[in-house]
Amino acid sequence: MKRSIDLDKVEAALIAIMQNQYIVLMGVPGSGKTSFALQFSCALGAFDSTLLIPVAKDWTKPKDLMGYYNPITNKYESGVTEFYPFYYSLNQNKEETTTNSFLILDEFNLSQPEFYMSNLTGLADNSISRKIKLGHDTSISIPITNKFICTANTDETVQSLSARMISRCVFIHFNEPHELNQTIDDLIFPDNLPPLLSGTDMVSLFKASESDIISTSLTSEINKLISAFRESSSKYGNGISITPRKYNQLLQFCKVMSVQEYGQSKVLDYASVFFLLPLILGSGALFKSRLANIKSIGEDLSLDDFVKHIDYIINEGEANFEHYRFIMG
User: Fold this and answer.
1) pTM of the model
2) Which one-letter DSSP state was computed for residue 237?
3) I want to staple 195 with a disulfide (CB 3.0 to 4.6 A). Which of 60, 99, 210, 310 is the partner?
4) What are 134-145's pLDDT values in tens digits?
5) In a 10 Å sphere around its CB, with 0-12 CB exposed, 13-18 middle and 19+ buried, how is residue 294 labelled?
């Protein structure tokens, strides 16, 4: 991407992508989200098993993304997205021998993803069936090695995400713009790199095992931060809900990212930005006090990036009649 990226950021992003079904790359337009997604898939040798779909503004139903069965022609009409042919092709291969595959939904919040992806959101829970019925005895399976990488702008043109969608996603922030003289045409997307491992091996590599244990001290810090979110009191008002799914996402990430390599604070900093920061939504003086307390705890735990984001949310909220939110549309 012609920019300097710290190794720990690359590792954190790789772990988050391989552990979760829905990955949201968010930031201002032109910050490198789409080019990162494409180059990421190329680096894993998945150039030929990646589909880029630009999301349109008026999508409201799954058929806008997936196509539909036409009873007049007795054929499945895939439309312009090529979603159905892509997954039909993936289903012809043995999953244990194939590479990872990626569906890149570009500007996925131009329309409300809860609507046009309504039959896909359950894939965030690995225990459910990955077979998607498309109607008239037509179905596809979404391989466990297939990930949805979604780019999301943070300007006035996009839709806000519901709590239901946020609980299923991991959010990776892109805040640094490209160099002024750089365009996507300058970037290299190698199509001949061999896969590092099979797709199933890659997923297994980043899946926490029973031997991956979070230290007592890191567990204590996680619980301290989560309590600051969830605590309901007269001082801070109603707590911020954290679902078991979101809590498990955070724990799985912390188990796999190397505390020995990067330190406890760095691991928790990434985890809190990826998984806790998007839950912030509230208004009024009590909620501001809650954010100030969360910020103070973040400072005590040396969560530098997390604190920077909290600071930004507080400042933006003060300028918007004490309405504080994770910035998404």
Assistant:
1) 0.92
2) B
3) 99
4) 888 889 999 999
5) buried
